[in-house]
């Protein structure tokens, strides 16, 4: 059994999508971010960066004590390597998938997150920040579009954790100021994954987090955006 500490953010949805695709036995543990549940000591013992998702695997491959893993990319890699599910069989394809997983973690996710924040969550409009991050997301969409030019999936012919990692950050494209029509290969890939039954189940009832201006209370803003080194 795997405990999945989860909220319906793009990073949380990666793991929900992986679980739906693979059918891995798991228990969802909701984490209410605006209520500060990610700051509780028991959660910090699992995820010291106070972010979701995180997992506790009660049956690790080495047969030892339960193991906790935080950071969505690390969790995807851990589960894929443990189970072989959504993990390419050939070593070269494994490295291809890993490269694009790291690309998403280092580039697409952080830049899209900043674009979404300044476009929808910031208490005041900052024109430079909106332009800077919206343009960078557009560049990254172009990188992915070129990768998909003659490929069915990001790492080649097989659906893998690279696709799982990237898809939730393409879903809110409109709220990020992007038009998929500008990147036709990416749009084709996006529509293919959106049609998968597991994707339909994962996203049932899920709203675009950047589709409209957020209405956070001051207390919620402090919890979500006001943490410092000693928080």
Structural description of this entry:
The chain starts with a strand and ends in a 6-residue tail after the last helix. The chain has helices spanning 10-22, 41-44, 72-83, 91-121, 127-147, 161-170, 184-194, 197-203, 218-225; strands at 2-6, 26-30, 54-57, 67-70. Strand 1 (2-6), helix 1 (10-22) and strand 2 (26-30) form a beta-alpha-beta unit. It has a four-stranded mixed sheet, with helices on one face. Helix 5 (127-147) crosses helix 7 (184-194). The mean pLDDT is 95. The radius of gyration is 18 Å and the shape is globular. The chain folds into two domains: 2-83, Glutaredoxin (3-Layer(aba) Sandwich); 91-203, Glutathione S-transferase Yfyf (Class Pi), Chain A, domain 2, CATH 1.20.1050. By secondary structure, the chain is α+β, with helices and mostly antiparallel strands. The chain contains nine helices and four strands; from the N terminus they run βαβαββααααααα. 51% of the residues lie in helices and 8% in strands. The longest helix has 31 residues, at 91-121.
